[in-house]
Amino acid sequence: RMLFLGGHGPQPGARAKVFWSPGAKRGVLVTAGLAPLPPDRQYQLWVFVGGKPVDAGVFDADPSGKILFESKELASVTAENFAVTVEPRGGLPQPSGPIVLLGSPSAG
């Protein structure tokens, strides 16, 4: 499935697509327009399952705000929504920073 994520909060101009495979339990995120982050911060992809965020991995965008990122394998296959937040480098077990990209299967 292909899903669109729109810019949110402090980065309304950001855009992304998630190509999600429930069978493979993985996804590929392609972004544009993400802002550069300080060295102690990274973007973190979240997959929402049962209304709760599941860490799908952390990544850095290139200077132009683009990235091609493959998520780590997830145990669950029922993705309800996707978000990208700004988190401390290395990520966190739960989102704490601002949401910069947000989407859902129904939006794509």
Descriptive tags:
single chain; 108 residues; mainly beta; eight-stranded antiparallel sheet; 8 strands; globular
Task: Report on the architecture of this protein.
The protein is mainly beta and 108 residues long. It has no helices and 8 strands. It has an 8-stranded antiparallel β-sheet with strand order 5-4-7-8-1-2-3-6, with no helix packed on it. It is globular, with a radius of gyration of 12 Å. The model has no long low-confidence stretch (mean pLDDT 89).
Strand content: over 45%
Whole-number mean pLDDT: 89
**Residue share in helix:** under 10%
Structural class: mainly beta
Number of helices: 0
**Count of distinct strands:** 8
Instruction: Tell me, briefly, the overall form.
Output: globular
Main beta sheet: 8 strands, antiparallel
Question: Unreliable stretches, pLDDT < 50, 5 or more residues?
Answer: none
Radius of gyration: 12 Å
The first-to-last residue Cα distance is 8 Å
User: Which sequence of SSEs, written as H and E, runs from N to C?
Assistant: EEEEEEEE
Order of strands in the sheet with most strands: 5-4-7-8-1-2-3-6
